[in-house]
Amino acid sequence: MTSGMLPDPASDPWMNPPHSLHIVIPFIPPTSNHIYVTIWARKQIAKSKEANAFHSRFMSEVVPVYLPWISRMSNAPETIYRVSTYFYLDQWDVLNKGWFQTPKKAQTRYKKMDTGNRLKLIHDCLSDALGVDDSHFFSLAANKAPAQEYGIEPSVHLYVEALPAPKDPVGTQTLMSV
Fold first, then answer.
1. Which of 76, 87, 89, 125 could bond 58 through an S-S bridge, CB–CB 3.0 to 4.6 Å?
2. Which of 122, 104, 149, 135 is nearest to 59 (CA)?
3. Are 73 and 83 in contact (CB under 8 A)?
4. What pTM value is reported for the model?
5. What integer pLDDT is reported at residue 40 of this predicted model?
6. Whose CA is closest to 86, among 25, 41, 35, 37?
C-alpha cells in the first residue's frame, strides 16, 4: 500500500467477516439477587445454582448454534469488543398493570426491572464462549423493551463486534480519554 491510498479490502483482515455476531439467548438470566450466594463458613461469595444453571444452559444450548461464527471471531490478545445487549422481557415484567387501570393503582408506568444486574452473568458466559476475558469488552450498551411490542418471545439478543486493536498508548494517543 502506498501513502495516501486506501487498503485493498480483500487483503485487509478487518474487512472480511465475521467480525460481528448476533446471538439470541431464548431465555432470561436470573437477577443479581439470584446470581451470587455467600458461603459464610468459608467467607466467600460464589455463583448460585441458578447462575450455574444459566451458564450451563448457555454453553450447551446457545453456543453450539453459533459455534461456526464464534470460532471464526478474533480472540487475539489485543482484540477488543463492542457488546450491545437487548433484553426483550415479558411486557408485565416491564410495565405496571396498575398504571393502566382507572383509577391508577401504580405510581409509575414501569416496574423496577433492572437489567444492569444481569449483565455480568451474560458477559461471563459470552467471554467463555469467545475464549477471551471480559476485560476485552470495551464498549457496552444495555437496552430493554417489552417482547410483545416486537412480536417475539422473551429473550436476550447480543450484538458482538470485534474491533481492531487500539494503538500502543506509549507515545501515542490513547484509546480512552478521561
1. 125
2. 122
3. no
4. 0.78
5. 86
6. 25
Other beta carbons less than 10 A from residue 136's beta carbon: 18
Nearest of 159, 175, 166, 170 to residue 85 by alpha carbon:
159
Question: Which residue is it, cell 447480543?
Answer: 158
Q: What is the largest CA-CA distance in the chain?
A: 72
* Structure confidence by residue, pLDDT tens digits, 23-68: 999 999 988 777 878 888 888 888 889 999 999 999 999 999 999 8
Alpha-carbon gap, residue 136 to 166, rounded angstroms: 11
End-to-end CA distance of the chain: 34
> Which 8-state DSSP code applies to residue 110?
B
Cell numbers describing residue 45: 461469595
**Could you tell me the three cell numbers for 172?**
501515542
